[in-house]
Design a protein that fits this description.
The structure holds two protein chains of two kinds.
Chain A: E1 17-19, E2 24-26, E3 35-39, H1 47-72, H2 79-106, E4 108-112, E5 115-123, E6 126-133, E7 137-143, H3 146-151, E8 154-161, E9 168-174, H4 176-197
Antiparallel strand pairs in A: 1-3, 3-4, 4-5, 5-6, 7-8, 8-9
Chain B: H1 3-42, E1 43-45, H2 48-72
Classes of the chains: A alpha+beta, B mainly alpha.
Chain lengths: 198, 73
């Protein structure tokens, strides 16, 4: 495996690409299993949420006065409703941003020295976990689309596996070229170890 | 029943609806905490307590706004 792939990266709240993260454990991790690569979607996927949040924060300052002025011709809204409405609006915006961030934070791709795992939370009641042994990896490819993909270095990585196991698609992940290298090296190493073991 | 009484009943109905709406939102706040708990079982990371703290703060704020609504409205 290349030296670059052996770089130890600690994860934090906004990590979307980490190699050999020491501070990370996942469900069903085996004792002898080490995380080689940890991925989330590129931070750029959070930009629309941040923009939306910024717009929503401005709403009580801009839209509320206009709305109240329009209402005042027919009905006089008590000040208590204005206060509660404004506070609730900010709590709801915070809640929406938090929920969106949680989905980003916990939708992850993990490559260990044994397998590839893709964990997706669709909602509270639905969790989708897909995994494949590294020995079943057949082909790895990536694509980078558009100006933003090239500028911010993100793309989609496709991992084809043998048998009936569905292919893995890591969408909008950072450094797709490095992901391909690391997964490829890990699969080769696993195959080599497997041959040596027999 | 005069107009003032009808207006009073109308505002009381709006107050009750507001409190019910805020209570439903507080349930959503509790669901976020539960969701975060379930998710953190799948991935244990050092920065995860920050998210738990934010989820709890959000839930407490959603409860506080109910109390405030009962007092102010």
């Amino acid at each position: 495996m290349s030296e670059r792939a052996h770089e130890i990266t600690k994860t934090n709240l906004l990590t979307s690409f980490a190699t050999w993260p020491p501070n990370l454990r996942f469900e069903n991790q085996e004792k002898n299993e080490t995380v080689i690569l940890f991925l989330r979607q590129h931070l750029i996927t959070l930009v629309p949420i941040v923009v939306l949040g910024a717009i929503f924060i401005l709403v009580p300052m801009v839209v509320f006065p206009i709305f109240l002025k329009a209402l005042s011709t027919t009905i006089n809204v008590p000040v208590g409703y204005v206060i509660i409405g404004t506070i609730f609006w900010y709590i709801a915006v915070f809640g929406m941003l938090l929920a969106k961030f949680l989905y980003w934070f916990f939708n992850i791709f993990i490559v260990t020295n044994e397998r590839i795992i893709d964990i997706d939370f669709i909602n509270l009641l639905y969790k989708d976990v897909a995994e494949a042994q590294l020995s079943r990896v057949q082909d790895i490819s990536y694509n980078q689309k558009g100006i933003f993909g090239t500028i911010f270095n993100y793309g989609n990585v496709t991992i084809q596996t043998a048998g009936e196991i569905p292919n893995f698609e890591f969408e909008i992940v950072p450094k797709p070229n490095e992901v391909v290298d690391i997964v490829g090296d890990a699969a080769k190493l696993k195959a080599k170890n497997g041959e040596d073991g027999h | 029943m005069d107009t003032q009484q009808i207006t009073g009943i109308g505002w009381m109905a709006i107050k009750i609806l507001t409190v019910v709406g805020l209570s439903l939102y507080a349930i959503y706040g509790a669901i976020i905490i539960r969701q975060e708990e379930l998710m953190s079982k799948v991935l244990a990371e050092t920065s995860e307590p920050i998210l738990r703290f934010l989820s709890i703060i959000h839930f407490i704020a959603s409860l506080a706004v109910i109390v405030l609504a009962i007092i102010l409205l």
